[in-house]
Write a structure and sequence with these properties.
Strand content: 15-25%
Helix content: 25-40%
CATH architecture of the largest domain: 3-Layer(aba) Sandwich
Largest sheet: 8 strands, mixed
Order of helices and strands: HEEEHEHEHEHHHHHEHEH
Radius of gyration: 19 Å
CATH superfamily of the largest domain: Alpha/Beta hydrolase fold, catalytic domain
Number of domains: 2
Distance between the termini: 8 Å
CATH topology of the largest domain: Rossmann fold
């Protein structure tokens, strides 16, 4: 499948990757009214699903990024746009991200697809939608692509399309990129909430976490993932976690029409997160690689702020046999 020729054109200040990355969060105010449903997992924990419905027959499942939630601005704006185009939406809040710490020690990580499979199965069995569409942002995008790669041709029959936005499909490369001095503000913001949750887990589950001092002192994702994420989920090290949780190795097995939108100037991603060679020879993976756009930004100018939402909605609205044009 040829790479898609992008029509994204950022103007003026929005050509700056950092401006495009933070603008949506700081200067947009999309509003959505959610109805929350709490479901019990097989290990007796809970997952909070936030629904925004318009009595549609089609459902879009949205997965937020690292330490995001259903209230992340990119989730709200996408939900609003999908609702306006006759899609019901449910946001899958990853464990511990819905505003309440989950019950079990286990939370989530970039490649943890078990909960996603559980949620899709729950929605398929308990609701009467004619189709499901999966949309993941950043970490949620990696999770989406990894899930589809793991499923191969055995994906649920109701699942029709998938979209991944700004996905760090090479977690090592992304971690190295975010460790650069130019990205220290982003790194600090992520670590503040990640370390705080680790401290809360330590209080609830005494003597479970080793090296809390090193976790408190974490300066980058290697420090945090090596001392918390990896041992918490049975990985040998940060490197082992990154290698096994990255979606890049699973892309070749994807058999569902999948649209991957990402920007060359994304400050969170390395060049290894852009699967150009794979997309060129793939039957089901459509890659739109923009020159600018930042991380889940894609703001063209002060007035045109919905390029991303339009692209996502356009793709999931097409019939399964209707391809995107390169």
């Amino acid at each position: 499948m040829p790479l898609l020729k992008s029509d994204f054109k950022a103007a003026h200040v929005f050509r700056n990757k950092h401006v495009n990355t933070v603008f949506r969060t700081l200067f947009t105010k999309p509003t959505v009214s959610y109805t929350r449903t709490r479901i019990t997992t097989s290990d007796q924990d809970f997952i909070d699903l936030d629904f925004s419905t318009v009595n549609a027959s089609r459902l879009a499942i949205l997965i937020h990024g690292l330490e995001g939630s259903s209230n992340s601005k990119y989730v709200l704006s996408t939900t609003k746009h999908l609702n306006e185009h006759h899609f019901d939406v449910v946001v899958f809040n990853l464990r511990g991200c819905s505003g309440e710490l989950n019950k079990k020690f286990k939370a989530y990580h970039s490649g943890e697809t078990g909960d996603l499979d559980f949620v899709i199965t729950h929605l398929s069995k308990n609701y009467h939608y004619t189709e499901l569409n999966l949309i993941g942002f950043s970490l949620g995008g990696n999770m989406t692509l990894k899930y589809l790669g793991e499923k191969g041709t055995q994906y649920p029959s109701l699942l029709k399309k998938a979209v991944a936005v700004s996905a760090p499909i090479d977690l090592k490369g992304s971690s190295v990129e975010l460790s650069k001095k130019s990205n220290r503000i982003y790194m600090k913001r992520f670590l503040n909430t990640l370390v705080e949750k680790a401290l809360q887990k330590d209080a609830l589950f005494p003597n479970t976490i080793e090296n809390m001092d090193k976790i408190r002192a974490a300066k980058n994702f290697y420090d945090f993932d090596h001392h918390f994420t990896a041992p918490s989920f049975g990985f040998k090290s940060a490197e082992d976690y990154w290698a096994k949780a990255s979606a890049n190795k699973d892309l070749k097995n994807i058999a569902l029409p999948t649209y991957f939108i990402t920007a060359k100037d994304d400050p969170f991603l390395s060049a290894s997160c852009f699967p150009i060679a794979t997309a060129k020879s793939h039957k089901h993976l459509f890659l739109e690689l923009t020159n600018t756009g930042g991380h889940i930004g894609f703001i063209e100018n002060f007035r045109k702020r919905d390029w991303l939402e339009k692209k996502i909605t356009n793709f999931v609205s097409k019939s399964a046999c209707e391809p995107l044009k390169p």
